[in-house]
Amino acid sequence: MLATNLRSLSRPDYNTANVIELEQTDRLHYLHTKVRDKTANKRQFTFYADQIIRLLLEKSLERLNFEGLNVTTPVGETYEGKQFAKPLCGVSVVRAGESMENELRRLDLNIPIGKILIQRDPTTKLPKLYYSKLPDNVEKFHVLLFEPMLATGGSAICALDVMTKAGVKPENITFVNLLCSPEGLQKVTAQFPDVTIVTSSIEQRLNEHAFMIPGIGDFGDRYFGTTDLGAV
């Protein structure tokens, strides 16, 4: 209990109105134990990370607005069903965000997916937009923006700027995130208070190298196997 209170006291203030953290069940802690373990190889890491991603997507989808849709069943009766009130699309922040695409396609067919490439400038250390390709008429969609890591908040704000400049209203964006820092949440919610953020863990803090504590390492490298150890 003391550790929890100390962690809460050390967190920067941020707007919690649209920040949704998954229920911290033993099952979720089990999955986090698997993916945070530095000895996990690529196969193990992706297997358990995909399960967390599925939970994040389920939570994100259940919070959307729905409207009525009647269908006729094979026995000729009417079923009073539901459909999304707005068309849905995904947008991945390359490369780590692409890890969420397969689970989205398993949940719903034919959802268009856009891409945004942002990299940190080696001189200024600031995020720089290199490329974006969004679905046609993206302003008419509810957008699931995929970025597993929210650390300093710089890349997230850059990606959200891309979406809003394309005409997407902040209230029509759900930022789907695996881990986030209180510092990153503070920056993003201050600039985009109407964006919904769905995360599986709000971490303790950032360290002096801007890595989240307790953290997970470089998610993209671990998920796509581009590190020598596959688990750093």
Walk me through what this model shows.
Keywords: Allosteric enzyme, Glycosyltransferase, GTP-binding, Nucleotide-binding, Transferase. It catalyses: UMP + diphosphate = 5-phospho-alpha-D-ribose 1-diphosphate + uracil. This is Uracil phosphoribosyltransferase. Its EC number is 2.4.2.9. Belongs to the UPRTase family. The strands form 3 sheets. Strands 1, 4, 5, 6, 7, 8, 9 and 10 form an 8-stranded mixed beta sheet that branches. A two-stranded antiparallel sheet has the order 2-3. A two-stranded antiparallel sheet has the order 11-12. Helix 2 runs antiparallel to helix 3. The protein has one domain: Rossmann fold (3-Layer(aba) Sandwich), CATH 3.40.50. With 232 residues, the protein is an alpha/beta fold. It is globular. The chain has 7 helices and 12 strands. The two termini are 30 Å apart.
Provide a quick synopsis of the model.
This protein is an alpha/beta fold and 232 residues long.
Give the secondary structure arrangement, pairings included:
Blueprint lengths: L1 H9 L8 E3 L4 H11 L5 H21 L3 E7 L5 E7 L3 E7 L6 H7 L5 E8 L6 E7 L8 E5 L2 E2 L3 H12 L7 E8 L1 H10 L4 E7 L2 E2 L5 E2 L5 H6 L8
Parallel strand pairs: 1-10, 4-5, 4-7, 7-9, 8-9, 9-10
Antiparallel strand pairs: 2-3, 5-6, 11-12
Helix pairs in contact: 2-3
